[in-house]
Design goal:
Layout lengths: L8 E5 L4 H12 L3 E6 L2 H10 L7 E5 L5 H14 L5 E4 L15 H29 L3 E6 L12 H21 L4 E8 L8 H4 L2 H10 L8 H12 L10 E4 L7
Parallel strand pairs: 1-2, 1-4, 2-3, 4-5, 5-6, 6-7
């Protein structure tokens, strides 16, 4: 076994920046051909350009994951461009309902659910039947959060949807295991990305982290990408239905 992904095709949503970008680059370094998708084409193009020297290709395809028609086109274009999908990374997320629970609007909860829960569900329905038909197995990696394991203060919508994604991961693992399709989740703690700057730009928050977290520093996207590579590769052939926590020890207390 090895971490070699040569001849594998991966689809990574939210692949233009942050954790998704780091995962796409790690996969391409291991030889996979990777399609990255998000709304902002300029981020996707920049990531693809930075991978031109790597063994695998990165192909940018703009897509709003909250829109079913665009997800359908994303899967079809991925298959046309690089081939059938072996690895799916559901990484796109939003957190629009930050604040006291009584202030979370229906619109914020619905939007968070559509991106964090419905988009992965829709991609699973588009991709897994074809994985089953090919009979060669596959790997699905859902980027959840420790906020799905313990409540995030003033983060009802985000915690609710990430907890849902974790439970969906386990159900999918149970149902797809007989087809050798493995489904796992990664639950990051605080990672330095544009998405999480609300927290790591708050000096009081960061001081509490430094005082309480065993590894008292801010996590980096590549520290998540290493776990994603493990879960995508044959090295994790007996791993499914698991939630891999990468949080500097934050939940150990």
């Amino acid at each position: 076994m090895s971490f070699d992904l040569t001849c594998k095709v991966a689809l990574v949503t939210g692949g233009g920046r942050g954790i998704g970008r780091a995962i796409a680059l790690r996969f391409a370094t291991a030889g996979a051909n990777v399609v990255i998708a998000s709304r902002k084409a300029e981020n996707l193009i920049a990531t693809a350009k930075s991978a031109e020297h790597l063994p695998g290709r990165i192909v940018p395809i703009p897509c709003h994951v909250g829109r079913p028609d665009q997800l359908q086109k994303l899967v079809e274009e991925t298959e046309r461009s690089v081939g059938p999908i072996d690895i799916l990374v559901n990484n796109s997320a939003t957190n629009v309902g930050q604040g006291p629970a009584l202030e979370v609007t229906d619109e914020a909860l619905l939007k968070t659910t559509e991106i964090n829960v419905l988009a992965p569900h829709r991609l699973i329905r588009l991709i897994v039947p074809k994985m089953i038909e090919r009979g060669q197995g596959g790997s699905i990696i859902n980027i959840a959060s420790i906020a799905g394991l313990r409540p995030q203060p003033e983060g009802l919508a985000y915690s609710f949807t990430k907890a849902g994604l974790i439970m969906m991961t386990r159900i999918w693992a149970i149902e797809f295991g007989k087809h050798r399709i493995r489904v796992n989740a990664i639950c990051p703690g605080l990672i330095q990305t544009d998405f999480s700057e609300y927290f790591w730009k708050d000096e009081e928050y960061m001081e509490r982290l430094r005082q309480t977290q065993p590894l008292a520093y801010l996590g980096q996207p590549d520290e998540i990408a290493g776990m994603a590579l493990y879960l995508a590769s044959d090295e994790s052939s007996y791993v499914t239905g698991q939630c891999m926590v990468i949080d500097g020890g934050a939940t150990a207390r």
